[in-house]
Amino acid sequence: LPDHPVKHGAPGTTAPIAHGPSLAAIPFMKLARSEPVELLSAAQREQLARSASIRDVPARTVVYRAGSAADAVFVIGTGAVKSFRDLRSGRRRIVAFLFARDLFGLSEAGRYVNTVETITAARLYEIDTVALAELLQREPGIEFQFLCKTVHVLREAQHHNIIVGRRDAVGKLAMLLRLLQKQHSPSRDRRDVPIPMTRSDMADYLGLSLEAVVRASRRLQRQGIIEFIGRRQLRIIDRQRFEQLASLE
Amino acid sequence: LPDHPVKHGAPGTTAPIAHGPSLAAIPFMKLARSEPVELLSAAQREQLARSASIRDVPARTVVYRAGSAADAVFVIGTGAVKSFRDLRSGRRRIVAFLFARDLFGLSEAGRYVNTVETITAARLYEIDTVALAELLQREPGIEFQFLCKTVHVLREAQHHNIIVGRRDAVGKLAMLLRLLQKQHSPSRDRRDVPIPMTRSDMADYLGLSLEAVVRASRRLQRQGIIEFIGRRQLRIIDRQRFEQLASLE
DNA sequence: CGTACAGTTGATGATCATCAATCCCTGTGG
DNA sequence: CCACAGGGATTGATGATCATCAACTGTACG
Q1: Nearest residue to nucleotide D12 when comparing alpha carbons to its C1'?
Q2: Is the pTM of this model over 0.85?
Q3: B218: distance to nearest CA of chain A, Å?
């Protein structure tokens, strides 16, 4: 696998990533710009780091499986992972793609509900649930930021809902590609966007067949809206039409 | 409109609703049964109640609109509401149906992202965001329960994702009806289930056309799996096949 | 009783899934 | 350095499903 460039924190955000787990989100309640900002202070990151152990995981590795005992939550330092469920029909539904400064592993009744697998090589901060529970009780400030992050993730899930609900493959794909673009350059609008996951992953995320993803990609390219540089990179040609397609139907 | 029976708290849960806002969820971290339980202690509910004002709202009333300033969060005492976004295409996507002991109004950057409208008459506890922020800081215990609830809601959103991702209308519908059944009788499996919302609402929730919902309903009825008593009530005839359809594809 | 809206049914067409065949890239080993 | 193997990606043909449009029915409420 080609090495994807390691992201040293999103540019344009308030606090650079120094040490320890980092969480990014758009805060609720307070009026703010609509760009994710760092939620944790340096001191809070350090506190979290004391309860966390670092796990460097190669690409395509299962972090945990749905149904197994939930002993830890994870914060992504670098890399990309997918969170999914395999259905009886053999189909797979990817619930979310997660990137640097994202949080996962919040379980239900002590068991993980989704399986999580790395897409690229990733550095993960693993935080024992018992230690976390204790830390959150002790530090309401950190707890509040976790609440913030969870609300943010909820909103992303709702957005995903709207994506899956669209019935045109091209529009669905455009919305996913826009997410990747935002992920890659939250502030600046760079034209070139790396695509860490396979077409099959994209299909499972969008609720489409693999072939439908390919055809939608080709159509976007034929219409001169985007262009593929190899299979794992994307260039946005006509930002106007791209944004229009990717906007809410 | 026919009056829907007012729910005095879900039967079979630990704490009955006495006074003040009540939150139900399946806790994460701790091992527990997979049924929602009351998250707040009597004391916590009372504290919340001091920051809350009661709003009794008739059916089909907008509580707030997407984009407006988010001054308060809401806890449902009784009744049912829908949370949705209207898209430019004229289509509407219902993000969630919410019932007694549910929480809504968690905003993004100080603005509501969805519009919320009552389906039935409802009693809402309205909690000022500033007062809430202060209360959460003061009471980490309450804050933790809000985190719990939010994680639970996130999980429901992911489940909704899987529903919308199915491509067979009958299966989608079955999954929604099962949600209504669980909502109505979390512990016992009652055969008769009230349907508070319109077919059109169901369509907007499932990502189907109104007609597709009707046809899927008819098919379920023709196959002897369910039966409709009027338009707003449902009886489950063949629980076996019903569960199978409503299970994860 | 009549109006308005929710719900129902039928006919038609567009879109996407599926199946099948092939291509292409990448990493491996000779 | 090249050949090869294997999985990802691409393309084409076909059919199923659902959206759309249109007409109509039922129900609630003034």
Answers
A1: A211
A2: yes
A3: 23
